[in-house]
């Protein structure tokens, strides 16, 4: 790969070259949804211009091409995650659907009194599906504590694990705090307790490939749209042995082997979990996004992101009354913060007037907000296409807001 050069990267993201409210756009909301490089848009346009057809059933050339693109994309994801085989890669709508699929799939194995462990920093997508399945099965959701820095309390985790623990479902990276959790250790301990491990990788994969075999987790989920790919598609990785045992998630076409009114048998993996016509073009787009990421100088990219965050931290410390929520040792470049005397949503509105897009609110992590005893945060999330100049302009704007409004 050629050395990482943010100015060259920015040429691949045409959307960033626009003005918003009369100011050059500064997009700092990639943790909510990332922008797409031109090659992703082109791959999707090319698909609709040339190859569009349904998959797996065409007795014709376009059907073959659509299928090749769709299944080729599955291979790309398999390699990105280092899964053993592409049959372990299930297409879903996103992280949310992936976790719902697993929760439903494991439900038949859960009994009254069984325990499901999540953490206090989970996105609602990794809380609510487990609550629903707990309600159905009589199992209990238990919560790993965190400390003031926004790190998991490993002692609390160890204390929760016991013979009744059936599932440990945790995020690899917090969307609010940016904390990188020690999932290797969490998985090892969960396995020793005989529990399934479900890792929410939504905020982890935008920062590089993942090795699910090295992690040895049972399930891993992510969304394409945070990984510079299109919306509407995501991935569930699962170990074959578990996916084989789990019942189908939805019924319909594609997922069956043979249907009769007496008895229906199901298709092989991964199709057993993919009822109906899938998001074909989106799969092609996601593969293009992964190819784009994989071709970058990854060490350079990580160093760039790190530099952005360090600069942000340095500038943040100079603003009176600014408090960073999430000060873990290991972080991705995501900064949640509050400014005394200002509501987060006002910070968002005032920044938008300056062309700066951040996210404000509870970030789908209400239990975490409650623990910190705050209504929400302002969150600036940095991605590979952001620059030091943008970080400086964000904090110039925040300094001004702090002076004028507090
Ligand atoms: N988990 C985490 C950590 C997230 O950040 C998000 C998206 N904000 C999700 C799950 C849900 O992803 P999606 O909405 O794409 O299903």
From TrEMBL:
Obligatory cofactor(s): pyridoxal 5'-phosphate
Catalytic activity: (sulfur carrier)-H + L-cysteine = (sulfur carrier)-SH + L-alanine
Stored PROSITE patterns: AA_TRANSFER_CLASS_5
GO biological process: cysteine metabolic process
Record's keyword annotation contains Ligase: no
Keyword Transferase included in the entry's annotation: yes
Pfam families xref list: Aminotran_5
EC number(s) from the headed UniProt entry: 2.8.1.7
Similarity section: Belongs to the class-V pyridoxal-phosphate-dependent aminotransferase family. Csd subfamily.
Protein name, entry field: Cysteine desulfurase
Gene that this sequence comes from: sufS
């Amino acid at each position: 790969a050629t050395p990482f050069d943010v100015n060259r990267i920015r040429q691949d993201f045409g959307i960033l070259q626009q003005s918003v409210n009369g100011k050059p756009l500064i997009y700092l909301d990639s943790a909510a949804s990332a922008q797409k490089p031109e090659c992703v848009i082109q791959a999707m346009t090319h698909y609709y211009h040339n190859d569009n057809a349904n998959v797996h059933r065409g007795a014709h050339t376009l059907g073959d091409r659509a299928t090749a693109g769709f299944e080729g994309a599955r291979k790309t994801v398999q390699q990105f995650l280092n899964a053993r085989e592409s049959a372990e890669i299930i297409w879903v709508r996103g992280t949310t659907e992936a976790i719902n699929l697993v929760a439903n799939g494991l439900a038949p194995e859960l009994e009254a009194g069984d325990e499901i462990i999540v953490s206090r920093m989970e996105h609602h997508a990794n809380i609510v599906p487990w609550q629903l399945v707990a309600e159905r099965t009589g199992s209990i959701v238990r919560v790993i504590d965190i400390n003031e820095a926004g790190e998991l309390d490993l002692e609390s985790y160890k204390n929760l694990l016991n013979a009744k623990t059936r599932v440990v479902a945790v995020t690899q990276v917090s969307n609010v705090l940016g904390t990188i959790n020690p999932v290797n250790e969490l998985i090892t301990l969960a396995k020793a307790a005989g529990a399934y491990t479900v890792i929410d990788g939504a905020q982890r994969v935008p920062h590089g490939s993942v090795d699910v075999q090295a992690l040895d987790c049972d399930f891993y989920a992510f969304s394409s749209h945070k990984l510079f790919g299109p919306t509407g598609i995501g991935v569930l990785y699962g170990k074959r042995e578990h996916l084989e045992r789990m019942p189908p998630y939805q019924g319909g076409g594609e997922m069956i082997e043979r249907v009769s009114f007496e008895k229906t048998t199901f298709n092989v993996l991964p199709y057993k979990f993919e009822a109906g016509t899938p998001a074909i073009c989106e799969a092609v787009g996601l593969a293009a996004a992964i190819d784009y990421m994989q071709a970058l100088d990854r060490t350079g990219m990580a160093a760039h992101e790190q530099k952005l965050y360090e600069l942000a931290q340095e500038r943040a410390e100079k603003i009176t009354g600014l408090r960073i929520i999430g000060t873990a040792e290991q972080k991705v470049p995501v900064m949640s913060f509050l400014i005394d005397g200002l509501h987060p949503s006002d910070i968002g509105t005032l920044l938008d007037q300056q062309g700066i897009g951040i996210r404000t609110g509870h970030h789908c992590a209400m239990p975490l907000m409650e623990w910190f005893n705050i209504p929400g945060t302002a969150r600036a999330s940095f991605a590979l296409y952001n620059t030091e100049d943008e970080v400086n302009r964000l904090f110039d704007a925040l300094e001004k807001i702090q002076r004028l409004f507090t």
